[in-house]
Design a protein that fits this description.
heterodimer; A: alpha/beta; Rossmann fold; 6-stranded mixed β-sheet; 17 helices; B: mainly alpha; ABC transporter involved in vitamin B12 uptake, BtuC; two-stranded antiparallel sheet
């Protein structure tokens, strides 16, 4: 089926989310839709799946004009969404998830499990999507969960499949498998729309590329000839250098030293299992791993936010066990947290207030019980300027900033202190290419000042761009320690999946 | 962090590889838990040995049949002192073994068995030199577990769909009151049906505020409890006191099922009960089947686990939740009728005495599964019935302490289990359509 959008416009109060967007997804081809956050990809997708109705413009499938009143209409028209955050019930089986809403039954209401399993098996066989219909979703790896999502839309007769950031949660091996699935779907005549901000993948899999910026289509590109740099420049609207410039690391003394560190969850099971690692001054250590393999806890135990069950953490030779998070932070650990909106800042506070969240109680920001507004504002003005936070109005609330600028504000607060260790958890998650470039530069600058840096990221590209040394976490353990110059994303990917350990 | 962590820091953590360490850390926790259980059992053994056994004299006699049963069983008579010493030794052996070696995966079971033995010991001690009708206690165990099991079922229906219902107590009380008034005015069956409807209406209030206005569900539950308590107390004082004939409902008689009802012990327990008890069994079995085997159940559980997923597949989250909550409320109202129409035929202020909350505990103990919750309700029903029967014979325990039993059991069970069972993932979370 061929899908055509003509002049789609959607306005929200104060924002023109889609401005006269026209594009075509050819039958049996892959269209990659790329753009930064806020470029209007999600709005367009919600219009396609019947969640929003466009203010003007037309959706045409195989030459026929469509009107979607609700998601049901879009499904009937043959559009299937595979969401970034899987829409699955973890405690249900594969088959139960697939048939939910279109269950085969006896006597009107009693589930026919046999038939449900058979329906799943049929689609599995037809499209080469092997998965056990009786397995519980929570026991399946993410790659298989994604297959279940695909089977779900295929069972509902989808001919146009829309994938929203499908590779964000996959290991490199799973990405390769996923591309195989996409080829298979293509060969069976499905039309694929692939929404992504990963330019490499768009170039690898797409037949056509459409670039969105600020709600508008800014151009189309031919994946055979286009380069990542060209696409990035189209996305951002100015020239972008994607490689991080850095010299060879010059590691000095050990700053962070962890020995046998274990952390338990509420049920007494280890989430961190006997972690041994060191970070030296003047080097960037990257922690790679699929989300949920203990990286969050690693950062939280170093910063004192969760208690350690056993082992020792030393900062410049000093034992940190039992110190309060404030003491640890003050004594030398800067922390850019992974969840910017919940841990990194307070959305309803002003920029000035957010910038002194970790030091408001110290001189010159406080005298006795009184806060010194003037000193706070002055310091904030300097930081906002130095770290290029836009718009630079310190009286605005943190919540009003875009993701990239909010992250720059947090980086400003954490990096402006003179500390021996900096922890950056997912430092560029979900922010624009321009801010990514800037934050990467800042991290390298901090390293060159002789600070020890630990970067935790689920993006392998980011790990390879920044890290001098790579640690791979799997199931609460460090399963590999590799030199960036002597390894490859494929090797790291195998460790991430727990296969090479 | 400091106290906890420091005692481990001397461990030679670096000396073993990380693969082994996981099991070692786990073992450490297991050993500690095994020790703790062992100590508890030894204390129980000590209590039986040094406090109960020396105080008991004569034979303890337990009646196993009612006088008019078709097949009579002889009363069970045991020498109290001797049997208490034997029980103390068994408990001591179990506790000692557990402390030294541990029963590994079976320790939870051993703990349960030991508590049961301890309860037997208390019963022997309390009845020493007297006669105690064990059968009537067992029959009343089933009767008294009825409102608790139904209360738990009410909670399960709501929470499986993602709506927390702590207003069960209010639904029970509302059902009890409505049941007695309508029962007195029109008749027992009308009373029962009205009680069910009132439960459903209270649930409708919960559903409306929770689903349409996304009010905090705990607060709505508290409001329902206070509202019903206040309203029924007011109406009792203002209306029922002046018109006692409105507070005098017929009681549903026990219906004996032919043949099955004549089986010794089990017959009177399960096949010679009121319609409310049979209704409880029916509802538990029916709801379990529907929840786990029907399309309705699959959809209900899906909105309690991941409403977004259900919504994206065209299932109406609001409608599904409304249905489950109203069904749950009706079960709660039905359970309320047990207090009046199933037992005494009259209403007293606050007569449900926290049974709705005990039902919530049973729901958690039963891991949000109706059959499991029924099992838990049996334990609470047993303790409830035990304290009541012991109060009748002249035991050395003050009645004030006896009447604490069901609540104490609830605290012990909940403290030991909360956090282990996994509630539905979206329990208590309002759903907002995009």
């Amino acid at each position: 089926m061929e899908l055509e959008l003509r002049g789609i416009t959607k306005r929200f109060p104060g924002v023109l989310a889609n401005d006269d967007v026209s594009l075509t997804a050819r039958s049996g081809k892959v269209l990659a839709l790329i753009g930064e956050n806020g470029a209007g990809k999600s709005t367009l997708m919600n219009i396609l799946s019947g969640i929003y109705r466009p203010d003007s413009g037309e959706i045409i499938i195989d030459g026929k004009l469509q009107h979607f009143a609700d998601p049901g209409d879009a499904i009937k028209a043959g559009i299937g969404m595979v969401h970034q955050h899987f829409m699955l019930v973890p405690v249900f089986t594969v088959a139960e998830n697939v048939v939910l809403g279109v269950e085969p039954t006896f006597a009107g209401n009693i589930l026919n499990r046999k038939k449900a399993n058979k329906e799943v098996e049929e689609i599995s066989r037809k499209y080469g999507l092997a998965v056990d219909p009786k397995a519980l979703i929570e026991n399946l790896p993410v790659g298989l969960q994604q297959r279940v999502e695909i089977i779900k839309v295929l069972l509902r007769g989808a001919k146009i499949l829309v994938f929203d950031e499908p590779t964000a949660v996959l290991t490199p091996q799973e990405v390769t498998e996923f591309f195989g699935i996409v080829e298979e779907l293509k060969s069976r005549g499905s039309t694929i729309i692939f929404i992504t901000h990963k330019l490499k993948e768009a170039l690898a899999i797409a037949d056509d590329i459409t670039v969105l910026r600020g709600g508008k289509v800014v151009g189309n590109a031919d994946p055979k000839t286009a380069t990542q740099e060209e696409l990035a420049s189209m996305m951002v609207g100015r020239d972008i250098d994607l490689t991080v410039k850095k010299t060879k690391a010059n590691p000095g003394e050990v700053v962070l030293d962890m020995a046998g560190v274990s952390v338990m969850d509420d049920y007494g099971r280890p989430i961190l299992d006997s972690i041994d690692m060191q970070v030296r001054s003047g080097e960037i250590v990257g922690v790679a791993g699929i989300q949920g393999n203990g990286q969050t806890e690693l950062v939280e135990v170093i910063t004192g936010l969760i208690p350690l069950a056993s082992g020792a953490i030393r900062l410049k030779g000093q034992d940190m066990a039992g110190s309060s998070p404030r003491d640890i932070h003050k004594d030398g650990v800067a922390h850019v947290p992974e969840d910017r909106n919940h841990m990194g800042m307070i959305g309803s506070f002003t920029l000035a207030e957010n910038l002194v969240l970790d030091s408001y109680y110290e001189k010159p920001f406080s005298k006795g019980i009184r806060m010194q507004r003037q000193a706070i504002d002055e310091a904030a003005r300097v930081l906002v300027k130095d770290y290029d936070v836009r718009p630079p109005h310190i009286e605005n609330t943190g919540g009003a900033l875009s993701g990239g600028n909010a992250q720059k504000m947090i980086v400003a607060r954490e990096f402006s202190r003179d500390v021996p260790l900096v922890l950056c958890a997912q430092p560029t998650r979900g922010i624009d290419v321009g801010s990514i470039e800037y934050i990467h530069e800042q991290i390298v600058r901090k390293r060159d000042e002789g600070v020890a840096i630990l970067v935790v990221s689920t993006e392998l590209d980011e790990i390879f761009a920044l890290a001098d040394r790579i640690l791979v976490m799997f199931d609460g353990r460090i399963v590999a320690e590799l030199n960036t110059s002597e390894t490859s994303p494929t090797e790291v990917g195998l460790y991430m999946a727990g296969q090479a350990a | 962090m400091s106290n906890h962590g420091s005692e481990y820091q001397e461990l030679p953590v670096e000396s073993y590889t990380s693969g082994e360490s996981k099991t070692k850390v786990l073992n450490k926790n297991k050993v500690r838990r095994a020790r703790a259980i062992g100590v508890i059992l030894l204390i129980l053994a000590g209590v039986v040995m040094f406090i109960l056994a020396p105080a008991a004299e004569g034979n303890a006699t337990f009646g196993l049949s009612f006088p008019d049963d078709r097949f009579q069983l002889d009363a069970l008579s045991v020498p109290s002192t001797g049997s208490l010493y034997i029980l103390a030794l068994v408990l001591g052996f179990l506790g000692g073994t557990q402390f030294l070696k541990g029963f590994q995966s079976k320790s939870t079971m051993i703990l349960g068995i030991s508590f049961a033995l301890f309860v037997v010991a208390v019963m022997i001690w309390a009845t020493a030199g007297q006669e105690f009708s064990l059968i009537s206690m067992l029959v009343s165990t089933i009767a008294r577990c009825t409102p608790i099991a139904l209360g738990a079922l009410s909670g399960i229906l709501c929470e499986r769909a993602g709506v927390v219902n702590i207003g069960i107590e209010g639904m029970l009380l509302g059902g009890a009151f409505t049941g007695v008034v309508m029962g007195s005015l029109v008749g027992g069956w009308v009373g029962l049906i009205s009680a069910t409807i009132v439960g459903g209406m209270l649930a409708l209030l919960l559903a409306f505020l929770a689903i349409n206005f996304r009010v905090d569900q705990i607060i709505i539950g508290v409001v329902i409890n206070i509202l019903v308590l206040g309203l029924t107390s007011f109406l009792t004082a203002q209306v029922l006191v002046k018109r006692p004939e409105w507070n005098d409902a017929p009681i549903f008689p026990a219906i004996k099922i032919p043949i099955l009802g004549d089986i010794p012990i089990l017959g009177p327990m399960f096949f010679d009960q009121t319609i409310l008890v049979y209704g409880m069994f029916g509802l538990v079995v029916f709801t379990t089947y529907m929840l786990f085997r029907s399309r309705w159940g699959l959809r209900t559980r899906s909105v309690g686990e991941n409403p977004k997923a259900a919504d994206s597949l065209g299932i109406s989250v609001a409608k599904t939740r409304y249905l489950a909550v109203i069904y749950g409320g009706m079960v709660g109202g039905f359970a309320g009728a047990w207090f009046t129409l199933g037992t005494v035929g009259r209403f007293d202020e606050g007569m449900t005495g926290g049974r709705g909350f005990i039902g919530l505990a049973a729901m958690i103990f039963g891991a949000w599964n109706p059959i499991g919750a029924f099992g838990a309700a049996l334990i609470f029903g047993f303790s409830d019935s035990l304290q009541q029967k012991l109060a009748l014979i002249n035991t050395p325990i003050p009645t004030e302490f006896l009447s604490m039993t069901p609540y104490l059991v609830t605290i012990i069970v909940v403290a030991g289990l909360v956090g282990r069972a996994r509630p539905p993932a979206a329990d208590g979370q309002p759903f907002e359509k995009q």
